[in-house]
UniProtKB/TrEMBL annotation:
<dbReference type="GO" id="GO:0004519">
    <property type="term" value="F:endonuclease activity"/>
</dbReference>
<feature type="region of interest" description="Disordered">
    <location>
        <begin position="115"/>
        <end position="141"/>
    </location>
</feature>
<keyword id="KW-0540">Nuclease</keyword>
<keyword id="KW-0255">Endonuclease</keyword>
<protein>
    <submittedName>
        <fullName>Endonuclease/reverse transcriptase</fullName>
    </submittedName>
</protein>
<keyword id="KW-0378">Hydrolase</keyword>
Length: 284
């Protein structure tokens, strides 16, 4: 539920950078995918600016990719620039590693549930007076001031795989359903993500061929899904749903390690010097 507390420094919505990594190297069908939430901004323009450089921020260099396309900021829906963009309406950055993996970066929008405020020194697009370049200022604009000493947000991420559309499982969609300061609030929201209105989980089970909720008595000590997964469900129509609570990969050790392995796997390797030199920059 969106917060009613809005003002000049409290944006109505939050904008999240969501990378999808498609592992075509190991699975040519495109069904093996990983999803991360990198950062959140209080304006779309700020999120767009951050997304354009986010692969560098997690340890890649431009030369680590055989192809790296960044959608022009002017490519609005329906424009000539948008019509010429080949990677889909929602994709802002497309990258393809030499080994074949694809990186698709998009922006998800959610209500500002916790009435988070913009950082005052970034609000309004004014200069910080630090000599920062325009590009760097752009990606730093719209950052948020988190309460209660929080250093990061907790995200509710719903992944849908439609096996009716493609038996391989490559027909997938991932959406951020909410962002919360407190992990307990995110877990509560995750458990309600697939429920209709005031429906409880017991009622929801009748609408699904399978409905697994972390905390069910039958799964105590043997939860078969990832530790950040709150709910897994299968619809009668063949759609598979997973609802998880995520944190930025540079915060969570497990996610950071996953991304570091991705960086290492995409080194061009074995080529001394020039554009073929492998990246040595770690995820920080």
């Amino acid at each position: 539920m969106a917060s009613a507390d809005t003002g000049p420094d409290i944006p109505e919505n939050l904008f999240h950078t969501l990378p999808t990594i498609v592992d075509l190297h190991r699975d040519p069908s495109g069904s093996t995918r990983s999803y991360y939430v990198l950062s959140t901004r209080g304006t779309f323009c700020a999120a767009q600016a951050y997304s354009a450089v986010s692969l560098r921020r997690i340890g890649f260099r431009d030369e680590d990719f055989a192809q790296l396309d960044v959608r022009p900021a002017a490519a609005e829906a329906g424009s000539e620039e948008a019509a010429q963009w080949p990677h889909g309406e929602g994709v802002l950055v497309y990258a393809r590693a030499v080994s074949g993996e694809e990186f698709l970066l998009s922006i998800n929008t959610t209500p500002n549930n916790d009435a988070l405020r913009l950082n005052s020194h970034h609000h309004g697009g004014t200069s910080t007076g630090t000599g920062t370049s325009g590009a760097e200022q752009g990606e730093d604009e719209g950052t948020l001031r988190l309460p209660d000493g929080a250093q990061f947000l907790h995200y509710v991420l719903q992944t849908t795989i439609d096996y009716n559309a493609d038996r391989s499982g490559s027909a997938q969609a991932a959406d951020i359903e909410g962002a919360y300061v407190h992990r307990a609030d995110a877990w509560t929201a995750a458990h309600r993500c697939l429920l209709a209105g005031d429906e409880d989980e017991d009622s929801a089970r009748s609408r699904f061929a399978e409905y697994d909720s972390r905390g069910d008595a039958g799964f105590i000590g043997e939860w078969p899904f990832d530790e950040d997964t709150a709910v897994h469900a299968v619809a009668e129509t063949g759609q598979n749903f997973t609802v998880a609570v995520k944190t930025p990969p540079h915060i969570e050790a497990k996610r950071k390690a996953e991304l570091r392995r991705v960086v290492e796997r995409h080194k061009l390797g074995g080529e001394a010097g020039g554009a073929g030199e492998a990246t040595k920059q770690a995820v920080k």
